[in-house]
Amino acid sequence: MMPINLLLKLYKLFHGITIMPRTPAFSKLEHEFLLKAISTGVRLDQRDMLEYRKIGISFGIDYGCCTVEIGETKVMAQVAAEMDRPRESRPSEGRLNVHVEMSTIAFPSFDPTKPGELGVGIQRMLERSIILSRAVDLEALCVRVGEKSWTIHLHVHVLSHDGNLIDCASIAAITALKHFRYPDVSVIGQDIVIHTMEEKHPIPLTVHHMPLYVSLAFFKGCERLAIDPTYLEEKVMDGKIILSINKHKELCSLQMNGQMNITKEQILRCTEIAAVRAKTLTELILNAIKTDTDDKKLGKTKSQTVLEKSKDNKEILKSELTVNSQTSEEIQIANMSINEDAVTDDAIKNGHNNKTEKPYWLTQHDRQTCSIGDGKVNAWSGDGAESSLGIFKALRADTQPEEKSEDENEDSEEEVVILDDSALET
Amino acid sequence: MTGNLLDGKIVVPGDVFSAADENFKLVNKIKLGPGLTTNQAQKIIVCKSGTLRYKSPDTLWVDCHQQRYIPSKGENVIGVITSRQGDFYKVDIGASDQAVLNCMSFEGASKRNRPNVSNGDVVFGQLIVANKDVEPELSCIDPSSGKANGMGILSGDGILFTISLNLGRKLLSPDCVLLPELGSHVSFEIIIGLNGKVALFCKSAQQSVCIMNLIKATEYMSNTDIMKALNKQFF
Amino acid sequence: MDLNSSLPLGNLQCEQKVLKNTDGSAMYTAGETNVLVGVYGPADCKESKQDVKQAVVEVNFRPKIGIPGVAEKYMEKFVCKICESVILRSFHPRTAFSVIVQVMQDQGSLLSCAINAVSMALQDAGISMRCMPVAVTVALQKKEKEDNEMKDDSKKFVISPSTKDEEESVAIATFVFDSAQYDSISAYACGPMTSDEYRECLRLAKEASKHIVRFFRDSVSRKVSTDIR
Q: What range(s) does the Exoribonuclease phosphorolytic domain occupy (chain A) (predicted)?
């Protein structure tokens, strides 16, 4: 079995790409119009600023095969399992590898031989949110310590690019992992017997939690916020915040791309929006998997067809472009920020935030530092007023075992809320 | 005309008609439009799928749904300027080759009075050279009169979007009711290029976006469906 | 766009204009095998690979799992040759056509499913073709009856075999016909078979292809029927 790198090199030699059709040129007219429209709260597909496009999830006949569409963006994920040696550094765990394939079918300038910045970005982000946050139980994949374990390969194929690839890819990835089943194994003495699907029921993967990415794009000097940007919107945005969050409001990964100057209130608001979004998405995914499992039990073998197709005679009015029970979300988000209009973001610009309750996942150390997750003693000296040696433990509903390290620096004009006065052992 | 028997027939590539058929007994020469070609045996072969159209006395063509533009002489197209090479601008018109536009092909342009054109500008022009062997050439003035006739750089608060080629032709045909009806309710300025690009100028962004979505939705609609949709929108 | 044919071709389904950025696309399903094809063309081509007299055709075959290997490369060459013979390449010199085939689900007869999908995608993109290629796979299953007196081989021809059928068969052949005259464009056969058996497979495939052409015509007319006069 040749190593992957060598195979890739051979493939590249074999297959130099002949053509890459040119990307259509982007005119100044479109650029200016898009920015002007967004500053008045109008998007090209007549969505609200915090509205998602239609999502469709469909499954194939194989376990672990899933296609997700968000509007015109389509991604397919397929999970496969292979029996292999475990990593030497972790002999009692299986492995999970993520492969992202960007082919020309998705966008004219994608080169199938080179994943490119976008492809590598998606791969790294998926690895961070799924593998590093321990979403999948890898220890259960070990068959014989140090010798045999399952290696799970997650193949993500990008089929169509119309913006927001990372959201779509993460939904597809998590759904495929949740849907996947690997063959049952019996260890009899020295022999390991892998049973076929007919002999014994295959086992589903243990997915502890489902971290899903949510992208929020900022426009016009970070005055305007839009969720789920399309390809054209991505071309004119200042930058994006990409968060990986699960339905328990646990943040698994946070990334900011682009030239942005945003305040802490904006970031916190983004996380609130993302949390609501992740919850809805998780429900949608679990429903879809359940429907598919029921169908499979009944023996309904439908080939991979799209669940929701947009009609040819689309309704032109805005009200028709509603997303799966999205409207209740908007109300929720609006209620969360008091004295703030959910659509016009003037309040974000002013940095005015009436929330006095600190989120339970945020630990305040002193006037200038706070963190998320368990950590060590704060070694930074404060401004002298409060003791920097005293660490304040936030009152949390349930303790989070995962370790996340994101440090946020707070401006000093906010009131420090002292939650608990006790020293934390390292 | 017996050719009317063929009009409206749905064809796929590979369908064959004989020129010596009953249908064309009365004509000597048959003009074949896009989507049709001949083979050695003097038979007419369909090479694109779509609806066959006949116009008396002797013209046949296929109306096909296509996305990619193939340049054709005399057509008015909208392009985006991508680069400048000496005396020429390179313009992206959505075809396989980029078109060239002479720097002097604007109304009132001279060596001293150069037009103010930069990369990313949108131009509306006519193809003066377009065949399969050579790069297409664009011009923003009428070659005979030297006048612009509405061509040139498009600027203002407008939106540029892409539609399929046959939708563009449909909108421009005198039979289609969409644009006149729309014009009676809303005031707007629209420029439709035969390469599927449309520039739309309207009072507000909201209106522009609304009209754009309306136009895109009429791809597969017949006239009656269009009237129904418009009535829903405005009444 | 469904066709439940009485022939054992399985359920045929086709969806066109599935992808946004390609010039033409089709998602074709035959039985349980599902293939997505995207087509670009005529598009600009690198100077070094250009042909002055006609267009260049390139096919990219992408399996669901793993890196494309030698088998995929062979299928690419096969599909490429078919496209080159069917597309009217002299209409578009110095350009290139790019066909990308993505396997969505493989439950047997993958090659014929892929070729039919490519056919629909090319037609969807409005690319000039002299005909539409139609492909059918036929598998030959032999059961040797161990009879002391007479060895009677009972043959079974399976049209559009599933994965299980393919595993049990002795030989598999894929035939490609043109949609107009039903002439043979190409064939791919592997496994031992006599010339009589080959002829029988060819005959059966030709019969089956007529159903598929009817399905293509049906799909096209549904897409096109709402044009205004």
A: 51-183, 209-275
Selection from A323, A406, A328, A325 nearest residue A371 by Cα: A406
Sign of the torsion formed by the C-alpha atoms of C78, C81, C82 and C84? positive
Of A7, A103, A305, the CB nearest to C100: A103
The pair of structure tokens assigned to B177 is 């009711």
What is d(CA A66, CA A177) in angstroms, rounded to the nearest whole number? 9
Q: Return the residue in B77, B81, B93, B213 with the most chain A beta carbons within 10 A, the one to mutate for interface testing.
A: B213
Residue position matching structure tokens 């509306």: B124
Q: Which residues in B lie closer than 8 A to residue C220 (C-beta atoms)? A: 10, 12, 49
Pairing of strands A406-409, B10-11: unpaired
Partners of B63 on chain C (C-beta within 8 Å) are 224, 227
What is the 8-class DSSP label of residue A325? Answer: T
Q: Could you report the per-residue pLDDT of A130-140, keeping only the tens digit for each?
A: 999 999 999 99
Mean pLDDT of C142-158: 66
What pTM does this model have?
0.81
Cβ of A19 under 8 Å from any chain B Cβ? no
Mark yes or no for CB contact A33/B157 under 8 Å: yes
Percentage above 90 pLDDT, chain C: 64
Is the pLDDT reported for residue A317 higher than 70? no
Annotate A24-64 with DSSP letters as a single string.
PPPPHHHHHHHHHHHHTT--TT---TT-PPPEEEEE-SSTT
Among all residues of chain B, which has the CA nearest to that of A316?
B214
The structure tokens listed for A425 are: 């052992």
Distance, in Å, from the CA atom of A129 to the CA atom of A207, rounded to the nearest integer, reads: 13
Report which listed range, A228-232, A413-417, C43-47, is most confident. Answer: A228-232
Mean pLDDT of A145-155: 92
Yes or no: say if B124 and B148 are a contact pair by the CB < 8 Å rule: no
Name the E strands within C47-197. Answer: 56-62, 95-105, 133-145, 152-159, 171-178, 184-190
Residue C209 pLDDT greater than 50, yes or no: yes
Question: What 3-state DSSP class applies to A117?
Answer: helix
* Interface touch B210/A24, C-beta < 8 Å: no
pLDDT tens track for B102-157: 988 888 888 888 888 889 999 999 999 998 889 999 999 887 877 778 888 988 88
Cβ of C226 and B220 within 8 Å? yes
For strands A239-245 and A251-258, give the pairing: antiparallel
Is A303 close to C20, i.e. CB distance below 8 A?
A: no
| pLDDT tops 90 at residue C129 | yes
Handedness of CA B69, B71, B76, B82 (dihedral sign): positive
pLDDT of residue A210: 93
CA distance A338 to C184: 72
Cβ–Cβ < 8 Å for C175, C139: no
What are the two backbone dihedrals, phi and then psi, of residue A271, each rounded to the nearest 5 degrees? -65, -35
Hey, what's the torsion of the CAs at B99, B104, B108, B111, to 10 degrees?
A: 160
The mean of the pLDDT values for chain A is 75
Token output for B148: 């612009």
Which residues on adjacent β-strands are paired with residue A83?
A: A150
